[in-house]
Structure formats: structure tokens, C-alpha cells
Amino acid sequence: MAALDDVKLLLGITDTDMDSKLNLIIANAGRQVLAYLPADVTTVPDPLQYIVTELAIVRFNRIGNEGMASYSQEGESITYGDDIAPYLSAIQAWLTMQESNKRGVVRFL
Questions:
Q1: d(C-alpha 7, C-alpha 10), whole Å
Q2: pLDDT tens digits for 43-56?
Q3: Phi-psi region of 67 (alpha: psi -120 to 50; beta: other; left: phi over 0)
Q4: d(Cα 82, Cα 47) in Å, to the nearest integer?
Q5: What angle do CA 40, 44, 50 make, to 5 degrees?
Q6: What is the pTM for the complete model shown?
């Protein structure tokens, strides 16, 4: 699975101990992206696959901090936002491109 290899590379994971956990996170990230696509789209299109990778990394890094909105300790502050929000414009651009590709031209001779 290419997404698994990408996620492991970006996280610096070289063994296979966490593969099942990472595969679950990747599958859930894919479902999250698909929720913003039309119902007839059943797999994440290649141009949007990078979003799955990015969401999987964010989710992996949040393990243990689920449901937390912000964290502060000794001058360090971490705030969690909506994970998919930065990618909504890319998803919308893909949807717009798909709509423009569906438009046909009819000519009468």
C-alpha cells in the first residue's frame, strides 16, 4: 500500500510493528475524505490521495490526545483545529474540475 509507505516514511517508522494501527488510521482518513465527495465516488481519487496521507499523520500524532482542543505546559502551547479544514479548498477544486469535465457539447448540423 503506497499510503502506508508514505506515512511510515514521513513518521520515520522503519519496522512493521505499527502497520495494523497505521492501516486503520489510513482507512479512516480515506473515509473522512470520501465524506466530502459525491456518493458515487467509492475510492479516494489519486489527486486527493495526499490528503489521506496528511490526515493519517495528524491522527497518528494525536494518539493519546483525542478530544483535546488545546494543551499548555511550561510555556509550550498546542492547539488542535479541524483536521480536514485546510484541505477543503483542494477537495472543492477537484469537485469543480470533475463537474467541468462532465459538461458536453451538442452540435446540430
A1: 5
A2: 999 999 999 999 99
A3: left
A4: 21
A5: 155
A6: 0.79
CA dist 69 and 61 (Å) reads 14
SS3 category, 90: helix
Closest alpha carbon to 54 in 93, 88, 87, 17: 87
The DSSP-derived string for 69-80 is -EEEETTEEEE-
Say which residues have a Cβ less than 8 Å from residue 102's Cβ, sequence separation at least 6: none
Closest CA to 95 of 49, 51, 45, 58: 45
Question: With 0-12 CB in 10 A as exposed, 13-18 as middle and 19+ as buried, what is 66?
Answer: exposed
pLDDT at 84: 87
